[in-house]
Amino acid sequence: MSDDDAPVPDMAPAAGLPHGLVQRDGGVFLDLSLAPAQLRAAVGQLFQSGQLLAGLDYPLFLLTLFHAPTPRAAPKGEALLRIAARVAPFPPLRRLLYKQVKLCGDSAEFYFEAMPAQEDGAPPARREFDELVADLWGKGVQYGIDAVTVRAMLDCGKAGRITVARALAPQPGRDARLVEVSQGIYRNDAPRERPDGRLDLLSFKNRFPQVKKHARLLRLVPGAPGVPGYDLAGNALPPPAPLELDLAAVAGAGTAVEHFSDGDFVVATQAGYVNVDAHGKISIENRIVSREGVSSRTTGNLKLRAAYEEYGDVQEQRQLDGSDITIHGDVYGHLHSHGGLILLQRNLVGGTAFNEHGDVRVEGVASGSVLQALNGTVHLQRAESCVIAATRVVIDSASNCEIIADEVVIELAEGCAVAARIIRIGSAGPRKQVEMLVFPLVPDLSALEQKIGESLAKAAQYQQMQLKRQQEIDAIAQLPEVRSYLALAGQLRRGELQLQPAQQLQYDKLAARIAPVLKEVARLRLEVKQSEILHAQMLTLVEQLRQERQATAGQSRCTLGLVDGETTVRAMVAPPGPGKAYERPPKEIKALLRSAAPATQLVFADSMGSLDWTYAPPP
Q1: How confident is the prediction for the chain on average, in pLDDT?
Q2: Gap between the Cα atoms of 213 and 305, Å rounded
Q3: Quick one: DSSP state of residue 39?
């Protein structure tokens, strides 16, 4: 127990106690103004004088004397810390109970024998923890007594050998090390780990590392000193010194060592790709060009952050993810670009080319493939059995393809299903047993039609209200007194009649009787005027909506220069749902264009001729 929060009125040490120990009514205190070594010497003198500390708070005693890890702070304004209840004698006869101590290197063992009964029949004497501490101190065990285990053994009274004390090994510090602060700056051909923890055997962990200018590549984590330990005698055991590193030794071309508020870093001085030599020096190169091809043997699947140029082929099922992708060989795998241009100088066979923000251009043949440019144009020389979707599609020759876009321009189309808002085909016809289908996408005008209908209905209501109020005004005007008053008032206003005083009195009485009626007429005339204004506004709005409907409809056009074989053109209402129709998955696009599910309107069906059609909605 510790009463260090209790006030200590007197700080003078008791007579006979070593300097550093103070006896008070509240207990025995350590003078914290002394160094730990002085306090340990004072405790040693006390134990050597045949005394001990009764009621010892051993954990606090250990922390205070050895700073392991840090002694507890003393009370405010005090320099004393209570560590025991009192100083008590340790008779030699009692010391005989603690002979069975065995030092074994970094630990001390004690054999607890069963205590014999006393001759007078009294209960056997028991060993005390405070006596064991004092006895072990004199035998060189000044640190590391396991107070919990020892007290439990003393309380149970059983015989047995236990380890009563252990040395504290020093805790090593942290060596200085380099930490990668960019994502994967070293080439690593190990399988890439997926987010779920499984390994992707089709991808290398990091084949072509690339970074941006000013990117932090490596951070120096300085070494940290360790924590000293203590042997059983209380001697400090220093930890090994941590290893240090020099950042300048690992900074190569294209990098520099820079100091920031949060540490020292190796920073890229230019954008490019990371190279690490055999000595661990890192450098940044301007570009990367691969001549090995993309395959399971060379690169595996690639996920890059910048432009990529490949002179070899892209193997089947290989995936290449990046931006500004240029392939000089044939592509049989899958390309995914986040921007820039996908340029294939040869063929795309059975693969995919997907660009989120840019164009796709194939200078060879695209066959059995999927090509999508969500915010760009697909340019093809020749396409066979492909699914093509883009903002704009331009093809020299297409056969047996499903094509959907905002605008499609094809010189020769055979056996294709084409859907777009604007379609221009030079020559169209079937291919073998596959029919030629053209679907001009027309807007869904139902919302505008509904607004027009609602506006017309409101205009009719306002007109009906106007007629009704006018009829009420006419009915009031036919009342005898009203008709007489209005006629008389008109003559007086025009100066055709002069009233005598008696006549004026009669006229004033008539005006007073007619005043409420005239007020009602004024209110009705105001409602008539308001109805006229609202009626005109509704008719103006209807005209605006009709113009908007016409303009929206006129954006859908289809031109066929030459029809060579059975060709069907059907107007298709743009499919509902969020996003553009060409943003759908390839399977949905194919199903949409080859099935009869969408509601269509026949525009043209013939085996010869031409077509120049612009969508005109019904009046």
Answers
A1: 82
A2: 13
A3: H
Q: DSSP secondary structure string, 400-454?
A: S-EEEEEEEEEEEEES-EEEEEEEEEEEEE-BTTBPEEEEEEE---HHHHHHHHH
CA distances from 519 to 505, 511, 513 (A): 21, 12, 11
Q: Name every residue whose Cβ is closer than 8 Å to that of residue 34 and which is 6 or more positions away in sequence.
A: 19, 20, 42
Q: What is the structure's pLDDT at 197? A: 63
Q: What is the average pLDDT across 432-450? A: 80
User: Cα dist. 22→4, 43, 551 in Å?
Assistant: 13, 11, 101
Cα dihedral: 264, 270, 272, 273 (round 10):
-30
- Token pair, residue 339, equals 């921007």
Distances (CA, A) of 15 to 10, 19, 352, 565, 591: 13, 10, 95, 125, 104
Query: In whole angstroms, what is the distance from residue 326 CA to residue 310 CA?
Result: 6
Of 187, 78, 590, the closest CA to residue 368 belongs to 590
Q: In this structure, how many other beta carbons lie within 10 angstroms of the beta carbon of residue 574?
A: 15
What are the sequence ranges of the domains in the chain?
21-166, 177-285, 446-553
d(CA 393, CA 210): 33
On whether the pTM is more than 0.90, the answer is no
Beta bridge partners of 407: 392, 422
Q: How far apart are the first and last CA of the chain?
A: 98
Q: pLDDT tens across 496-513, in order?
A: 777 677 767 776 776 777
- Report in angstroms the alpha-carbon separations of 446 from 233, 443, 556, 573: 94, 9, 16, 11
Residue 460 zone, left/alpha/beta (φ > 0; ψ -120 to 50; rest): alpha
| Predicted confidence (pLDDT) per residue in 311-329, tens digit | 899 999 888 988 889 999 9
Here the tokens at position 505 are 């009195």
